[in-house]
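Title: Prediction job returns without error message
Component: structure pipeline
Severity: low
Priority: P3
Assignee: unassigned

Description:
Job completed but the reporter wants confirmation the result is attached to the right record. Sequence as submitted:
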Amino acid sequence: MHDFCFTIPYGLILVCGGIIGYFKKGSLASLGGGLGIGFLLILAGYLSLQAFHKRKNSYFALILETVCAAVLA
């Protein structure tokens, strides 16, 4: 499987989780973290998908995904 098969759906889950956390508890940290990391993962997945269509690698997307994983860990 390719990385965009996981990063785009996981980014959407994080965005939804941040929004839900904000509405349930009023947590701005949840909103900021969910939206921030979620949108970065969606962007990385999109860049990777565009590179895949051109039969190339997107090293920027790979680095962005790695940084997001390190932040979440």
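Comment from assignee: result matches the submitted record. The chain has one domain: 4-72.
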